[in-house]
Amino acid sequence: MSALPKHERLYEQRLISCLFSEGKHLSPSPRLRVRFLLIERSGDEVEDFAPLPPVKLMVSASKRNFKHAVTRNRVKRLLREVYRFHKEEISGLVPAQKTLLLFLQYAGKEEVSLEEMKTLVQQFIEVFQKRLRRE
C-alpha cells in the first residue's frame, strides 16, 4: 500500500493554479511553508474530476537550497512520511463536504531529521487548527 495514493496527490494543473491564486499562506516556522485552500467537494472547480478525498497533498523542496536531487528527494520523502503519520489528524480538521488542497514546502537550508520534520508539521497542525476556528 502506498503512503500517498494517487487520488490523494495534488497533481491536477487546474487545482494547483486554484490553490496558488486563491489559497492562503501559512508559515508556522521559517523552515516550513504551507499554502492551503478549502474547496467544496462538489464545487464547480472540480466538476471534471472524480470525487475528492478530504486532503490532497503536494510537497516540495527547493533546488536552490538542496543542489543534489538525492537530498531533495529525501526531504520530500520525509515530508510525505510525516504527513502519513499525521494524516488522520489533518483529515479530521477538514469540515464535511470539503477538500483541503495542501502544499508543504521545506524551506530550510540544512538537511532535517524525521523528528525535526514531525515537530514542524505538528506546529503547522496547531496553527492550522487555530486558523480554522477563526474562519
Give the total of domains.
Answer: 1
Average predicted local confidence, pLDDT: 88
Q: How large is the radius of gyration?
A: 15 Å
Oligomeric form: single chain
Provide keyphrases for this structure.
single chain; Ribosomal Protein S5, domain 2; 135 residues; alpha+beta
Record the SSE blueprint.
Layout: H1 13-22, E1 24-29, E2 32-40, E3 55-61, H2 69-93, E4 98-106, H3 114-134
Parallel strand pairs: 3-4
Antiparallel strand pairs: 1-2, 2-4
Description:
This protein has a 4-stranded mixed beta sheet, sandwiched between helices. It is built from 3 helices and 4 strands; from the N terminus they run H-E-E-E-H-E-H. The protein has a single domain, classed as Ribosomal Protein S5, domain 2 (2-Layer Sandwich). The protein has 135 residues and is an alpha+beta fold.
